[in-house]
Amino acid sequence: MGSIDTPTITENGSTQLQAAAPSGGDHKPPASANGAQVEVSPEPEATKKRRSSMLPLEVGTRVMCRWRDGKYHPVKVIERRKMPYAVPYDYEYYVHYTEFNRRLDEWVKLEQLDLDSVETVVDEKVEDKVTSLKMTRHQKRKIDETHVEVGHEELDAASLREHEEFTKVKNIATIELGRYEIETWYFSPFPPEYNDSLKLYFCEFCLNFMKRKEQLQRHMRKCDLKHPPGDEIYRSGTLSMFEVDGKKNKVYGQNLCYLAKLFLDHKTLYYDVDLFLFYVLCECDDRGCHMVGYFSKEKHSEESYNLACILTLPPYQRKGYGKFLIAFSYELSKKEGKVGTPERPLSDLGLLSYRGYWTRVLLDILKKHKGNISIKELSDMTAIKAEDILTTLQSLELIQYRKGQHVICADPKVLDRHLKAAGRGGLEVDVSKLIWTPYKEQS
Ligand code: ACO
Ligand code: ZN
């Protein structure tokens, strides 16, 4: 399967690129910018003048930018800042690569931009926004107030723009968590006293975060947690799952939300974690249980959501943990005797993971099943909501609409082909190791 690019992770000082760079960028860079030894005739005075008249570039400008793959890609300037001790036009620019996900947005230097490609029409909406940078009451309420996570689909176009404006520049660039240093992906609304920190240090067990390494070292000497707070509801080999009640462990729940938001874009963070349960997946060794990922789940969902947010921490991604967490959420739904669906919208990576999981689970059943089977029966067997079954089978072109009814057409050869394309199965959930009863409000 192909790869979607994500930022980098460092362990013991060595940096690894997590996924292959996307292709693209047949734009020809200026001779001086690609490092090639070519003889360049002096720049005509007129060109120089034209270029410097553009500087500093306006927010909203579209231009080509040299990325870490050495190629030029179209970007939009999101923000700019003057460099300390700089000559008048020396600015850094925060850019969004318009072909890629927002997690790859970054600060770049002027020399990475090809000024000959500048499109002079500045995006008006961005300009409007820049003049009203301060937080609106609406945003403030959303951040200060309580409750659940809301997806973008519930936001109207104006609120969506506000969200993008308020979260446009990543605030924390890296975090240290356990033995990893991880580049962050998105903005997360940490309390104001962390505004001036580019890096935060997390205790990997209680998830408290600090501005300085020495503070973390002092904390680690005192912190007596060696696993997430709450009940261990699953253990198989070195894998454990803990259920954390947001009401009983408020600070942990809030810390987890701050941390998770660094890797989740389309979610608005709220601080009242009372209404959620957190299922934290850990790899355990003699030093303790190290968080690998988690999902959150509303205690009561009117929309039959069985999962609100899901995250595998970047160092652990693409190893099957995401599908394990998804499978786990459906095992809980089966125990509750309910069908479930993830909260929308799904991110690009979330959608890929769910599509892969749904495809594998449904096609495995269809392969083994003799005779007709209905969507309702599939839903009862898997706890996957009927709509998700329908869209999955439709996207695989396994559904026909005959005489007012959806009919599943499952040719074994076609099923095998789809199963092969759906990627690996992920880590299995051994249901016999799950010791859990559904949540009941204690009076
Ligand atoms: N490039 C291409 N395909 C990918 C990538 C990638 N970078 N990452 C995941 N996939 C696809 C693949 O099909 C993969 O299966 P394969 O490896 O067998 O080909 C499948 O998704 C899942 O792979 P897993 O290893 O099981 O999942 P992972 O542990 O990487 O976790 C997750 C997936 C949770 C979505 C992770 O990417 C993540 O945490 N992303 C950031 C947060 C996020 O976007 N969460 C979902 C938001 S939606 C919501 O919360 C309801
Ligand atoms: Zn701690």
From TrEMBL:
It catalyses: L-lysyl-[protein] + acetyl-CoA = N(6)-acetyl-L-lysyl-[protein] + CoA + H(+). The active site is at E343. The keyword Chaperone does not apply. Residues 1-54 are annotated as: Disordered. One of its GO terms (biological process) is DNA repair. Residues 167-438 form the MYST-type HAT domain. GO terms for cellular component: chromatin; nucleus. It is found in: Nucleus. Its main location: nucleus. Keywords: Acetylation, Activator, Acyltransferase, Chromatin regulator, Metal-binding, Nucleus, Transcription, Transcription regulation, Transferase, Zinc, Zinc-finger. The keyword Electron transport does not apply. CDD domains: CBD_MOF_like (cd18642), NAT_SF (cd04301). Its EC number is 2.3.1.48. GO terms for molecular function: chromatin binding; histone acetyltransferase activity; transcription coregulator activity; zinc ion binding. Residues 1-18 have a biased composition (Polar residues). Belongs to the MYST (SAS/MOZ) family. This is Histone acetyltransferase.
